[in-house]
Specification:
The protein is α+β, with helices and mostly antiparallel strands. Helix content is 46%, strand content 18%. The chain has three helices and three strands, in the order βααββα. The chain has a three-stranded mixed beta sheet with strand order 1-2-3. The protein is elongated and about 65 Å long.
Length: 83
């Protein structure tokens, strides 16, 4: 059985009946949507999803910065006047 990564869960049938109530009951937390007691999806409010995407973008940018700092010995010195 897969681990459920949420404090709230609901069946697909419950999701179909009243998705707004699920979001309200979860108070901004993700809701694991279960199919035969196995997570099939996670249902999150738009605000939570947007926050997650921003954090993911920040993480990816931090990875790029870390990679580029390791290439510092290949950098070319340029003065602002030359630009």
């Amino acid at each position: 059985m897969k681990q459920v990564l949420s404090n709230y869960s609901a069946s697909i049938s419950e999701l179909k009946k009243n998705p707004t109530a699920l979001l309200k009951d979860a108070e901004g937390s993700p809701v694991a949507i279960l199919n035969h007691n196995t997570p099939a999806a996670y249902f999150v409010p738009a605000e939570t999803y947007e926050w997650m995407m921003e954090r993911l973008e920040d993480y990816e940018l931090a990875q790029i910065v870390q990679e580029r700092t390791q290439e510092k010995d290949q950098a070319i010195t340029v003065s602002l006047d030359e630009l």
